[in-house]
Design goal:
This protein is α/β, with parallel strands linked by helices and 215 residues long. It has 2 domains: 4-93 and 180-213, Periplasmic binding protein-like II (D-Maltodextrin-Binding Protein, domain 2), CATH 3.40.190; 95-178, Periplasmic binding protein-like II (D-Maltodextrin-Binding Protein, domain 2). It has helices spanning 12-23, 57-62, 73-79, 120-129, 145-148, 163-167, 189-192, 194-214, and strands at residues 4-8, 39-41, 47-51, 68-72, 84-89, 95-101, 113-117, 134-138, 154-159, 171-179, 181-186. The strands form 2 sheets. The chain has a 6-stranded mixed beta sheet. A 5-stranded mixed beta sheet has the order 8-7-9-6-10. A hairpin with a 5-residue loop joins strand 2 (39-41) and strand 3. The longest helix is centred in the last third of the chain and has 21 residues, at 194-214. It is elongated, with a radius of gyration of 19 Å. The termini are far apart. The structure holds adenosine monophosphate (AMP). Adenosine monophosphate is lined by residues 12, 72, 93, 95, 157-164, 179.
């Protein structure tokens, strides 16, 4: 049987997911943060990990390059989630997707706001739902800089403690969604790897519940 391939990204998601996988009896034999290998074996013959850039995780899982993956809800919303199911909230890497800007900004003001973000789809959809006209400027990082240099009026970004906004004299203005890391599964893999996926889902679900009960 072909090994079950799980796409993970280095950094926060990997660091916080690892203990959950360990509790479920699976762990990579090398640390992806250090290893240059992109396919990393696990302690189990039937499971391997793929070291994938965060924004590429939904694409790998959608097209079957990976059977499963772990990804932030923000990245998943921006991707659209086509071909994926999202069976488990891992309750880690929690933050909020927010509209932010200068203190005192009136979001009801009748003007065409310019919004800098890497979440172009989420931002467009959010403002369309509120019937507001916006212009989106796509950026790939450090969105907080954009309003400071006159590139935009608002940003849409993930906010955790809010200290990055504060350090740049910006404030959260409106919440778009609560974010946490989700387990995603390729729809067809549910049939081809049903047993492996069901048993891993059950063990990970148990690990999440045990961790939550200790908090
Ligand atoms: P903070 O200053 O704690 O609000 O964190 C803000 C910055 O950290 C944001 O600009 C994000 O790039 C990043 N960040 C915070 N939480 C997350 C998360 N759960 N996933 C990915 N990036 C995050």
């Amino acid at each position: 049987m072909e090994a079950l391939r799980i796409a993970l990204s280095k950094g926060r998601i990997f660091d916080e997911t690892l203990p959950l996988f360990q509790a479920a009896g699976v762990e990579p034999v090398e640390n992806p943060a250090v290893s240059r290998k992109l396919i990393i074996a696990s302690n189990r013959d039937d499971i391997e990990f793929l070291n994938v850039r965060a924004s590429d995780v939904p694409t790998y899982v959608q097209h079957g390059g990976a059977h499963m993956g772990v990804i932030g809800k923000d990245v998943l919303m921006e991707h659209g989630g086509e071909g994926l199911i999202e069976p488990l909230d891992l309750h880690i890497a929690q933050c909020r997707l927010m509209v932010a800007g200068f203190p005192g900004t009136d979001l009801q003001e009748k003007k065409r706001f310019r919004i800098a973000t890497k979440y172009a789809n989420c931002a467009r959809q959010h403002f369309a739902q509120h019937g507001r006209q916006v212009e989106i400027i796509k950026l790939y990082g450090s969105m907080e800089l954009a309003p400071l240099v006159g590139l935009c009026d608002l940003i849409v970004d993930v906010v955790d403690t809010g200290s990055t906004l504060k350090a740049n004299d910006l404030v959260p203005l409106e919440s778009i969604a609560d974010i946490s890391a989700r387990l995603v599964v390729n729809r067809s893999a549910l049939k081809t790897h049903n047993e492996q996926i069901s048993s891993l889902l059950a063990s990970l679900g148990q690990a999440v519940r045990e961790k939550e009960s200790k908090l």
